[in-house]
């Protein structure tokens, strides 16, 4: 009987502590029989912890390097070097080596070693008592069982647990670390009579195995170039999803083409062949509603509505189409599929055209063909994947070759995933208001300050020279001049960061100016009786650095300058424009010259050089609302944020002597927009629908070099220099335990970023972010794979 049976909920209790059990002292060794000594010291002093993950019934074995007092750790350039994490799974071949009366050693396999010879050893310190070590060992095996069974160990009998553990131990003993690895069952294949097939029929072994005589499947999109990327489906023997056959909806078939069907297996970072010959159909089920169906003679593999959140991506050179399939019940991404077209050359072009038209018609409830020819061509380019991305070495961290700087690591700070807040800054935030959450972030330009709104209070934080945040003060009880408290829905720093302009929820005609020195609202501005204020932006990109009094306001169908020095209403009438049509303006941004870019509910982008004239350029949209927009200081680039993607637009008109779409109509010379999105395979891996926050360029005197945004708990940073060179997937990620509310760069650099969570705020440097492949290899995240 397990020791755990006598401890009840002490280990697996439903508390907030992510750590189940810990061995507080030991040494970590890398075992490699091919090396001279066969064993290399990795951490001289370390702790071993079994930790929960965000995925139910999944746990990690975490080995953390410990520093003695006075020991220098400043040479570490990445916190990942101080921690090794391993998913507790049966294939880990975890076992305790030697007699319980002798030295205590824990062994497990290195799953990144194809030979099966290498592994890890944790030599437990002699001060650790036997009951603690036995508890750690039993907990590890119990975690493996829960991952395999997908349920709590408390719901099964002791006999079933014992049978599982005996089987795992027997296989590990028969194939010890240091010898060639024998075949280990896949993590989802049951190891005992308790079959997971009974729990979930979709996890059964595929009904149709790969044909050993068939050639290795071609990779339809750029494969990861790490060691596992070269594995064929035969070598890696991935478990393929055996989904129940879907239904073909009734409707008119718009297109039908032959292709090969692949699915992305995140464990080997590779697309694997599911079916060599399938038929892909586009079906119009009703007005402005379309379905993608992939089938063969025996079954329907995929049947799903066509929508923009599929992250549709076409690669012309590979003749492929990649997309994400979502669970119709939970709304979460399930699989990343790829079609490699095998029909007549050009068949994929017609398929791409129709997919684009279907997405547009679904979003706008109108036919794509009603648009002007040049606008159709512009929108068609959005879905093209830049061919320069084909050989992108994604396993290597994105580097800025032009920069040389020494990264500083603050080991005293903990990430939001590490547990309860302990910093003074977070303690102050927690006192800002019971029940309130952080909602807004404003980063200062003139003074090194960040302002975080929580309810009717504002926390003020100072930026330190070593890229940290230090609490400065709290502004309490934001009130109107009439004494009514409110929580601002929009804030903007003004007049060299000495004041803040705020918008009040439910009040679309007034603005409120707070004097930051006194910490209270000192003026209320009646903008206009009739026109509403949807958004406010500074006169120029960095107007906050100047004493400028005026600012720009945006309504749903108007734009205007606001001058608070005017008597009565504050709109400057000769610098305003009102449209009769309801354009649905949503957001705006200004360049260093005061040129204006405005986004709309339909995804359109209008570009102005003055406020009282018609737009010089109008870029059509797919129908997905633009929720955020930013420009570079020189106005050469615009970054527009939609729910599932970003659009990067080069505003310079080719052959126009350096003029941009702000000064002259682009007409038929519209650029090819770069669609920045997460790779479809990464969307499925992250496990949640993409919903980007407004993306922003890095700020300061130097040229912009990075872009930041977030989706759910993930912060995303694009390398702007490499994006301009065609590397559209050069991004790094950091994942938190909670949703990211807002994010922005520290003024004057691109390496430091301020991240706001509902209960926390911190400044991080770019070395805290990792490439997706690095995150997978370090096992800091659990792959929530549905197969």
UniProtKB/TrEMBL annotation:
Residues 175-243, 384-435 are annotated as: Disordered. Residues 256-361 form the Vid27 PH-like domain. Pfam families: VID27, VID27_N, VID27_PH. This is Vacuolar import/degradation Vid27 C-terminal domain-containing protein. The lineage of its organism: Eukaryota, Fungi, Fungi incertae sedis, Chytridiomycota, Chytridiomycota incertae sedis. It comes from Spizellomyces punctatus (strain DAOM BR117). GO terms for cellular component: cytoplasm; nucleus. InterPro entries: Vid27, VID27_C, Vid27_N, Vid27_PH, WD40_repeat_dom_sf. Residues 1-164 form the Vid27 N-terminal domain. Residues 186-211, 227-238 have a biased composition (Polar residues).
